[in-house]
Amino acid sequence: MSEGSFAPEALEDLVVAKQPEINEVQSSREYAPTQSIARLLALPLEQRKVVDKPITAATKVCLIGDGQGADTKLFSSVVRPENITSVNYDLREVTAANERFEREGSAVRMKQADITNADSLRNAGLAEGSQDLVVAAHVLEVPIFNTQIGDEVARQKAAQNEKSFADNIANVLKPNGEALIFSYPQRLTQKEATRLGVEKVTPDAAKFYDIEWRQDLTYAELSAIRSQDELTKLFGDKFTVIIDNTADGYAVRLKNSPL
Ligand SMILES: C[S@@+](CC[C@H](N)C(=O)[O-])C[C@H]1O[C@@H](n2cnc3c(N)ncnc32)[C@H](O)[C@@H]1O
Q1: Which atom of ligand 1 is nearest to the CA of 90?
Q2: Of the candidates 63, 66, 76, which has an alpha carbon nearest to the alpha carbon of residue 5?
Q3: Spans of the chain below 50 pLDDT
Q4: Residue 141 is part of which domain span?
Q5: Three state DSSP letters for the chain
Q6: In the prediction, which pLDDT does 19 show?
Q7: Tell me, what's the pLDDT at 20?
Q8: Which atom of ligand 1 is nearest to the CA of 115?
Q9: Are 118 and 155 in contact, with CB atoms under 8 Å apart?
């Protein structure tokens, strides 16, 4: 692949209009690369598959919610930069990712978009039926997808967000496209949250989620955790679903047509 020639546009031109309806209160920390993705991409071509399409330099891949771009960087060691679309809601992370890509001479850029909003995905260049592969590691856990917190309105909104997540992934994929979703099987302990540097919830954010605030409350406690059955139910309408238990939690492998 060719690296070293990055697009000259100003970083701010790459950021699509911010979607106001999603709240800003999300966990933000420095995210490490996903080890399962690193291992997958290191495999020889014939084994380098999520379901049955080998990942090559020509694979159109979209990363959703990739923090500061660690997994996007992993993909850029295999996939040509023009075939990588990386979108994330958090503007601070988008800026950090792009500063890093620029510093490292990578042509890849992250754009701001919201996986629950089809228009924002289109604005970020994700046309319907355009992608071979979508990857989202630990995005479904963020509180906006938690149907167990807040009042009835908040719970319904979370259920709608969760559905939009699955629908929008199906929409941007080609007919035989595949997706790889990582989801934690259980909540982080307070100790793990502290070690990882998961952000504390502010009193305002707790109010937003309609939960009682305390000093040591972290976003880890608000994260949406799903069983294998719940994950199968969420994606089963649109995809063939395969779930593996990995060191990165459940690896949910999806194909948007029957195997
Ligand atoms: C828990 S972090 C996981 C980061 C990284 N993928 C990893 O596995 O370490 C959740 C990520 O999802 C992003 N995110 C949250 N809501 C989103 C949304 N509606 N659309 C796109 N990305 C979102 C956050 O900005 C953050 O980067």
Answers
A1: 25
A2: 76
A3: 1-25
A4: 11-188+225-255
A5: CCCCCCCCCCHHHHCCCCCCCCCCCCCCCCCCCCHHHHHHHHCCHHHCECCCCECCCCCCEEEECCCCCHHHHHHCCCCCHHHEEEEECCHHHHHHHHHHHHHCCCCCCEEECCCCCHHHHHHCCCCCCCEEEEEEECCCCCHHHCCCCCCHHHHHHHHHHHHHHHHHHHHHEEEEEEEEEEECCCCCCHHHHHHHCCCECCHHHHHHCCCCCCCCCEHHHHCCCCCHHHHHHHHHCCCEEEEEEECCEEEEEEECCCC
A6: 35
A7: 35
A8: 20
A9: no
Cβ neighbours of residue 250 under 8 Å, at least 6 residues apart?
Answer: 182, 183, 184, 185, 226, 228, 231, 243, 244
219 within a domain of the structure (yes/no): no
Residue 77 lies in a domain: yes
Is the separation of the CB atoms in 136 and 64 below 8 Å? yes
Question: pTM for the full model?
Answer: 0.89
Structure confidence at residue 28 (pLDDT): 64
φ, ψ for residue 175, nearest 5 deg: -50, -40
* 207 domain residue, yes or no: no
Residue 198 lies in a domain: no
How many domains is the chain built from?
1
Give residue 212 CA to ligand 1 midpoint distance, Å: 24
Best residue for ligand 1 mutational test, from 142, 157, 169, 252 (most atoms within 8 Å of Cβ) = 142
We report the CATH number of the domain holding residue 126 as: 3.40.50.150
Q: Which residues contact ligand 1 via a Cβ below 6 A?
A: 22, 26-27, 31, 34, 64-67, 88-90, 93, 114-116, 137-139, 141-142
